[in-house]
Structure formats: structure tokens, C-alpha cells
Write a sequence for this structure.
């Protein structure tokens, strides 16, 4: 788990935090920012997908207005052991959903705020809490499943 050192590098941190699920430990934040081509405006979905491809991971994205479909896709991925990078806070921030505990989603948030550091960046979201944070400006829920290296699906 790594916290952000700038206000705009949540994308590279979400990439690195998601890859921790596969035992891949990337400690050079600057290298991941270069790989994601992060600018002071942040990192978009396409650049995140390209960075994951360079690290030999396939991805699958969804972007739906159907909250039941979004939750089903998220839980399906997490139950299979696949982390999912989520666009949250009205598409202004990236977090890595890493697993489920009962009906709650476990997410790793790299935001470097006092409250988040107090929780070590780990959050347990109920369905309602997650949907509130996850919904974007257009009423959609975006998720990017990160598959393990060698995944053939």
C-alpha cells in the first residue's frame, strides 16, 4: 500500500496497489507515474490500461448506469481474486478494490489525508456507501478488472 505524494498520482498508486494482490511490489512511484504518463491533471483510464498492459496484465472495463450490474461485476471479479480499479469521487480519484468481506467491499485508497492514513488506506464499504462514492457525474459506475499475468480469458 502506498500513499500519494502529489494530489494527482492516485492512478499510478491504484495500479501499484492493485498489483500487490498478485505479489508484485513496485516501490518506485516515479517509474509508475512515467509508465502511466501521469500529468498534473492526473491519469486517465486509457493510460492506466496501457500501463497495466506494459506490465503484462490484461484488463476488462465496464461503465454502466445500472448499479446492480456494477455491483455484480465487481463482486464477481473480487470473488475470483481479481482486483478492480474504480473511478470514484465523481471521476476525480482512483482506488483499488481488493476483496470482499461478507457483503462489504475492501478498497485501498492512496489519498494522503489524515483520516485515510489513520485507516492505513483500507476501507470497508457497504453496498450503499460504495455506490455513493463510486457514482460519477453522469450516473455511471466505472470499473477496470486487472487479471493476473498469463490470464487467457
Amino acid at each position: 500500500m502506498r500513499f500519494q505524494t502529489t494530489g494527482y498520482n492516485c492512478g499510478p498508486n491504484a495500479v501499484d496497489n492493485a498489483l500487490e494482490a498478485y505479489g508484485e511490489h513496485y516501490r518506485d512511484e516515479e517509474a509508475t507515474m512515467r509508465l502511466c504518463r501521469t500529468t498534473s491533471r492526473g491519469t486517465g483510464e486509457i493510460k492506466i490500461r496501457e500501463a497495466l498492459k506494459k506490465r503484462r496484465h490484461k484488463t476488462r472495463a465496464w461503465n454502466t448506469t445500472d448499479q446492480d450490474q456494477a455491483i455484480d461485476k465487481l463482486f464477481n471479479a473480487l470473488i475470483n481474486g481479481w482486483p478492480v480499479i474504480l473511478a470514484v469521487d465523481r471521476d476525480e480519484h482512483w482506488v483499488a478494490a481488493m476483496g470482499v468481506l461478507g457483503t462489504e467491499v475492501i478498497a485501498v485508497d492512496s489519498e494522503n489525508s489524515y483520516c485515510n492514513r489513520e485507516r492505513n488506506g483500507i476501507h470497508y464499504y457497504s453496498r450503499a456507501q460504495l455506490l455513493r462514492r463510486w457514482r460519477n457525474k453522469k450516473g455511471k459506475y466505472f470499473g477496470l478488472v486487472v487479471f493476473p499475468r498469463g490470464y487467457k480469458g
